[in-house]
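Sample A.
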Amino acid sequence: MDMPMSVMSRIYMQYDAARIMQAAQALDADAARKAGPLAGMLISIKDLFDEAGQVTAAGSTILRAAAPAKADAPVVARLKAAGAVPCGRTAMSEFAYSGVGLNPHTGNPGNARDPSRISGGSSSGAAVSVALGLADVALGTDTGGSVRIPAALNGLAGFKPTQAAVPLEGAFPLSQTFDSIGPLAPQIATCAAVHAVLSGTTAPQTPEHRPLRLAVLQGPLMGGLDAQVTADFAAALTVLRAAGHEVIEVELPELDGYGDVNRIVVATEAHAIHAHHLDGLKIQGDPRVLQRIMSATGFGESDYPDKLAHRARAMAAFHTLADGIDAFLLPTVPTVAPAIAEVDADFDRLNALMLRNPSLVNFLDGCAATVPMQRAQRLATGLMIFAPGGWDWHVLDIAARCEALLQ
């Protein structure tokens, strides 16, 4: 696809057509890789993964002068061994610390369906690279929704695995408690194929096709939906029920305050990660990202361990609630993509709104997929299918069944 360089430069931090051709030729000469499960698949790489010979800048200015990585991150190495061809390093929120995808250093990719609106983040360029046909699949990270938010807002499928399922080495961290690695793609089947490579696991040979028991989490997570998300979610539930699946409503009181848990845990861990270059960030960093990192200096000594204990209790309660339920459902994001100008004027509220639903799954160390609730070429909305940690292939199977019905 021909794309103006002014647009390409907001999607990709590094894109080298000659390098892609060389990689494709090397694939043709390697019989094992050529026979791999991802053979010939163009995959964009978020700018926080190590690639040998490339600088891992994580969307920042301060790291652009760093030495190039000496080796590929394990996930990148696995993708290459499976035959995938990396096609460029994608734009992202600085240090992956925002759900809207804006970056004052690199410009904003803009939504694939309306460039005046946000792409979502932090894997912003990742989503747009796939939605515009510049890559077959994208490799992203998800600390509070950073795969699922941009996937949902750009009409894609996305998958956030259980954190321990995919190795984090070689990925610039935001939070060791919540970071996870997952794909964005046009269909959930491609996400599943990539997850198999990333995790080194395989799908069950005989997925179940019995009627499902699905649960919608009630409470604040269903509040504040805009008109289009409300209509699309109601229509999706109608389709699922018409197909013979049971959809019930449930509550989980232990979720109270989970947003504060995420905020305090992530800020505390991010502050420790960035402690050695805080002075530089005060000069060269995104002020909004710096503010979130520095918020950790105002926490009490017991806040961090108390929040981790709260999380452990909620995880246990979620596992108990899940007994007898196949998966949980929510709108991935409560609204369609807001305008970039609106986010600039009301960043804190809209960033929190984008993160609200998907970050729940990171809080619970669950696994989650998002699939489009409708395929019309209007602003996109996503259905989030999620479950406790370790249910990854079960969630991917249910997501594929939902996707087929909603198409």
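Sample B.
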Amino acid sequence: MEKIKEFKGLTGNLLAFKEEVANADKVTFVGMPGVCTPFAELFAYAIRDKESIFITGKDIESAKKLELKPEGMQLTVSADPEAEVVALLGGLSMPKSNISAEEIQELVDKILKKDGKLIGLCYMDMFKKAEWDKKLDFDCIIDGTLTGNVFR
């Protein structure tokens, strides 16, 4: 894969994602509980005019709608995970997840609509470090780098 665009900050990250899913009506996020869920909620908020679903790990039965509530995007009722876009979150590729790229490919094969788009959403080159960029046929990976400071 080659770099086609740069962005800065969280807003740039969200806008890059929004552009990639512009033509879809429905996006299914797949990620680990706790760590990935808030990121899925954030990205789903950026596309709140579309239907969003979240699957925990590789458990297709866990598919739940992400819906806008007064508290923000929240997981609600069970839902059909089949979508035009499947967005894999970087936490899946971490060793602690105990999930292989091959297992995720099996899941993607079940839920990604024909001619759909597979997107990777990660930070700090997580998919590249785990070599998932070579094992999965991503249409695009949106990778952010977090830097920061602590002041007293």
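B remarks: The chain has one domain: 12-144. The chain is about 30% helix and 30% strand.
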